[in-house]
Design a protein that fits this description.
CATH architecture of one domain in chain A: 3-Layer(aba) Sandwich
Mean pLDDT of chain A: 86
InterPro entries (chain B): NDUFAF8
Radius of gyration of chain B: 14 Å
Keywords (chain A): Methyltransferase, Transferase
Strand order of the largest sheet of chain A: 3-2-1-4-5-7-6
InterPro entries (chain A): Malonyl-ACP_OMT (IPR050602), SAM-dependent_MTases_sf (IPR029063)
Number of strands of chain B: 0
CATH topology of one domain in chain A: Rossmann fold
Pfam families (chain A): Methyltransf_23 (PF13489)
Number of strands of chain A: 7
Strand content of chain A: 15-25%
Protein name (chain A): Arginine-hydroxylase NDUFAF5
Shape of chain B: elongated
CATH superfamily of one domain in chain A: Vaccinia Virus protein VP39
Number of helices of chain A: 13
Strand content of chain B: under 5%
Largest sheet of chain B: none
Radius of gyration of chain A: 23 Å
CATH class of one domain in chain A: Alpha Beta
Oligomer: heterodimer
Low-confidence stretches of chain B: none
Helix content of chain B: 55-70%
Helix content of chain A: 25-40%
Mean pLDDT of chain B: 89
Number of helices of chain B: 3
Chain lengths: 354, 61
């Protein structure tokens, strides 16, 4: 909302020479929120890129560890069933190994046994652009059969923080587990809002809130007891209630946010860490301690993990809290809320008569 | 190509043999996890570490 206003003011003031300058393409292709405090750097983007490249270059392990990303992509795409539209151009931001494309080509996830089998979601989509900064990750599954079923372009981004697309380009923007390593999340959401056509939706899924709280707490306790201090091992994550505000700040309308906990059981905390590494989701927080975690700390953390969070059968749970968001780009012909006080029916009467 | 066992897997295998010691250490920490300080449970930890080291040594033979 904020930037829209300032852009209108700019356009109104831009006459003559300035106007031709705007139309010649010198304009930035993405939007900034108004100048504010400097962007906080939290993650090392180069480290993250390296981790993804390395993870994806181990084909076998990387595919095995894709269970979480595939599941989340399916749950995200399932939500498209609620929107009765088709989409000429779709963008997948932070595509990882094109898990969204895979989910879109899968048979209808929510099939009703009483109804004839409906087509996979990909029939609603004419063209998908999968954008990701890690080339190896992006092209990992380029030879898989699902690529034949979907009209898709893979695009390697120079930076995961910048979307090189023109304004009003896409009819739908999806993002499955691609936003939690973005330093400037408000800026990213503004860019997404900018490249959407009016009255088109952004749907995203990201890790948030209590994700990996078991690992976070046991590593903290272990480091505190073994070494007498802490260093960050699990990323700071956006909270559920932050996301609504973030979407609104980026100019989205009719915002919806909901959460979903996925709990995965592992034989021990080392298996969890190995899988995180194979997903390309290892620690990339700036200011973390370089090098591997000390063995003493690992040994202590595993014992604490079991004692504090362990299941009765000897496995250890890991919680992944998924935050799903949907927001619509503002448009004049969009359904608007009615003015206050214009209601004709008393909700109390309706509820009491039941 | 035979798959190489990663060091973390060897580590995990040795640690898994020490669950009684690990439970003792874990209980010591969890008993009052709001006031953990350095070497709070050092005796329990050393027992756990000794067990791990002996497991590691016996695997090598």
């Amino acid at each position: 909302m904020h930037w829209t206003v300032s852009r209108f003011q700019l356009l109104r003031g831009a006459k003559g020479v300035r106007a031709s300058c705007w139309s010649s393409g010198a304009r930035r292709s993405y939007a900034f929120t108004t100048a504010g405090p400097p962007v906080h750097e939290v993650f090392n983007t180069r480290t993250k890129w390296l981790q993804k490249e390395r993870a994806a270059s181990n084909l076998e392990e990387s595919r095995i560890a894709d269970y979480l990303k595939n599941e989340v992509a399916v749950r995200l795409c399932e939500r498209l069933l609620d929107i009765k539209r088709s989409y000429p151009r779709v963008l997948d931001v932070g595509a990882n190994s094109c898990n969204v494309a895979r989910a879109l080509t899968a048979p209808n996830p929510d099939s009703d046994p009483n109804m004839p089998e409906s087509d996979p979601l990909v029939t609603k989509i004419e063209h998908l652009t999968a954008a990701e900064s890690s080339k190896t990750m992006l092209y990992r599954d380029a030879d898989e059969p699902f690529n034949q079923q979907i009209n898709m372009t893979r695009e390697v981004l120079a930076s995961q923080e910048t979307l090189p697309y023109e304004a009003n380009t896409f009819d739908l923007v999806l993002s499955s587990l691609g936003l939690h390593w973005i330093n400037d999340l408000p800026g990213m959401l503004s860019q997404i809002n900018n490249i959407l056509k009016p009255d088109c939706a952004f749907m995203g899924a990201m890790f948030g809130g209590d994700t990996l709280f078991e690992l976070r707490t046991s590593l903290q306790l272990a480091e505190q007891e073994r070494r007498g201090g802490l260093s960050p091992h699990v990323s700071p994550l956006a909270d559920t209630r932050d996301c609504g505000g973030l979407l609104q700040r980026a100019g989205f309308k009719m915002v919806g946010v909901d959460v979903d906990d996925i709990i995965v059981d592992y034989p021990d905390s080392f298996a969890l860490m190995q899988d995180l590494q194979a997903m390309g989701e290892s620690n990339a927080v700036l200011g973390r301690e370089m090098g591997a975690i000390q063995r003493d700390v690992l040994l202590a953390a595993d014992a604490i993990y079991r004692e504090l969070h362990g299941n009765e059968d000897g496995t250890v749970p890991a919680t992944f809290r998924m935050i799903y968001m949907i927001g619509w780009k503002e448009s004049e012909d969009q359904a608007q809320p009615l003015p206050r006080g214009s209601g004709q029916i008393n909700l109390k009467d309706v509820l009491e008569s039941k | 190509m035979p798959t190489r066992t990663r060091p973390i897997q060897k580590f995990a295998a040795a640690v898994s043999q020490c669950s009684p010691e690990a439970a003792v250490y874990g209980k010591c920490i969890v008993a009052d996890y709001n006031s953990v300080h350095k070497d709070k449970c050092v005796a329990e930890f050393m027992k756990l570490k000794d067990c791990y080291l002996s497991q590691k040594a016996s695997k090598k033979k």
